[in-house]
């Protein structure tokens, strides 16, 4: 990831130098440059334009939304106009499950999804990446996505009809926001905590002592407001972006999942693109992911301060308290047979991520 960051810095620096150079040229030079560009990139007939609709649950103002805007911008800048991205935040195209079902029909849509969802769609081993307290650091996440094991899971997913476009997007460390204070893992006992509708995250929170409740993100605010649920978990950007802190005033920074996310589309749709369009989509998706990660890192401290300023009680758990969470989470990894995992999967993945 350090190498990728350096590559991105080089791209940004080159772009800045080019902008300065062009600004210093006269109007005649600009006209000439535009004419050359027009010859290099001939106009594409509207009927030849392919559009990928990216639907997602988050607000466009969240880091993930800003990352998507960068992806759209990069496709426009680096492409020949034959491929476009349209963005649909706030579940405008439906929830994640609906979008994935549409992909399986070959429709030109994409969404963000994670290993827990891929487990439900026929690649059970993928689910472990969303297990509680699996990763010790973000570096382990980035090492894992470049491993042979991870590529094997992507290949299995493609056989099911789903194509992962990029995996280097940090969604954020997932924390727990509740209507009642949580100071230790024991305080979760009996609390109804909203999780995305997949088995891995449901069982993961059940192992921590809570009662997990699958629910679309757009329904969480009202459910917290009416006390239908007692809490929800997500990265700070999402918790704040959905204004959930207005109706749940207690936050524990447990970081139970270091959540890197992927963008996925239909294999059939992806294979219908030209090789040039495929390369454009993959390369710009990775570059936008690096941009997203920079925004994500910067914004986390800002969102936390905003929540404190708006009256949220924030618990920074001690190492002893976090160890209590980890100890509770260990039972999750004993349930491999329930999830259909390969033998020794936990040890395989820990080795692939470079964990000791």
N-to-C CA distance: 20 Å
The coarse overall form would be: globular
Reported CATH architecture: 3-Layer(aba) Sandwich
What does the radius of gyration come to?
Answer: 22 Å
Spans of at least 5 consecutive residues with low confidence: 1-40
* CATH 4th-level superfamily: Bacterial extracellular solute-binding protein, family 7
Record field, number of beta strands? 9
Average pLDDT: 88
Structural class: alpha/beta
Q: How many separate helices? A: 15
What's the main sheet like?
A: 9 strands, mixed
The string of secondary-structure elements, in order, is HHEHEHEHHHEEHEHEHEHHEHHH
Q: What portion of residues is helical? A: 40-55%
- As for the CATH topology, it is D-Maltodextrin-Binding Protein, domain 2
Number of domains: 1
CATH class: Alpha Beta
The portion of residues forming beta strands comes to 15-25%
What can you see in these coordinates?
By secondary structure, this protein is α/β, with parallel strands linked by helices. The protein has a single domain (48-352), classed as 3-Layer(aba) Sandwich (D-Maltodextrin-Binding Protein, domain 2). 48% of the residues lie in helices and 19% in strands. It contains 15 helices and 9 strands. It has helices at 2-23, 27-40, 63-78, 96-104, 115-120, 138-145, 148-159, 199-207, 220-225, 236-241, 267-271, 275-309, 319-329, 336-339, 345-352; strands spanning 50-55, 83-88, 109-113, 162-178, 192-195, 211-214, 231-234, 250-266, 313-315. Strands 1, 2, 3, 4, 5, 6, 7, 8 and 9 form a 9-stranded mixed β-sheet that branches. α3 (63-78) links the parallel β1 and β2. α3 (63-78) runs antiparallel to α12. The longest helix has 35 residues, at 275-309. The chain is globular. The two termini are 20 Å apart. The model is unreliable at 1-40 (pLDDT under 50).
């Amino acid at each position: 990831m350090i190498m990728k960051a350096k590559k991105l810095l080089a791209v940004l620096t080159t772009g800045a130098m080019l902008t300065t150079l062009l600004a210093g040229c006269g109007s005649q030079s600009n006209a000439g440059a535009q004419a050359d560009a027009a010859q290099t990139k001939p106009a594409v007939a509207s009927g030849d334009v392919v559009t990928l609709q990216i639907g997602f649950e988050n607000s466009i103002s969240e880091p993930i939304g800003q990352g998507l805007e960068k992806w759209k911008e990069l496709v426009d800048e680096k492409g020949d106009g034959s491929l476009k991205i349209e963005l649909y935040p706030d579940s405008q195209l439906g929830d994640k499950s609906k979008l994935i079902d549409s992909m399986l029909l070959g429709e030109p849509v994409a969404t963000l999804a994670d290993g827990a969802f891929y487990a439900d769609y026929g690649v059970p081993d993928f689910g472990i990446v969303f297990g509680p307290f699996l990763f010790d650091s973000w570096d382990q996440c980035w090492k894992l996505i470049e491993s042979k094991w991870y590529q094997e899971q992507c290949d299995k997913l493609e056989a099911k009809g789903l194509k992962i476009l990029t995996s280097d997007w940090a969604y954020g460390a997932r924390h727990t926001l509740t209507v009642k204070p949580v100071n230790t893992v024991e305080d979760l006992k009996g609390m109804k905590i909203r999780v995305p509708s997949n088995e891995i995250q449901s069982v993961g929170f059940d192992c921590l002592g809570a009662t997990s409740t699958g629910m679309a993100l757009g329904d969480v605010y009202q459910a917290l407001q009416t006390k239908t649920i007692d809490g929800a978990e997500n990265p700070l950007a999402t918790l704040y972006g959905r204004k959930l802190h207005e109706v749940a005033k207690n936050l524990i920074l447990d970081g139970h999942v270091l959540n890197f996310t992927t963008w996925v589309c239909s294999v059939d749709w992806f294979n219908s693109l030209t090789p040039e369009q495929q390369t454009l989509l993959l390369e710009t998706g990775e570059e936008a992911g690096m941009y997203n990660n920079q925004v994500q890192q910067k914004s986390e401290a800002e969102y936390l301060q905003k929540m404190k300023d708006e009256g949220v009680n924030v618990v920074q758990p001690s190492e002893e308290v976090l160890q209590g969470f980890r100890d509770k989470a260990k039972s999750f990894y004993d349930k491999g047979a329930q999830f259909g995992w390969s033998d020794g999967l936990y040890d395989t993945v820990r080795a692939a991520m470079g964990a000791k």
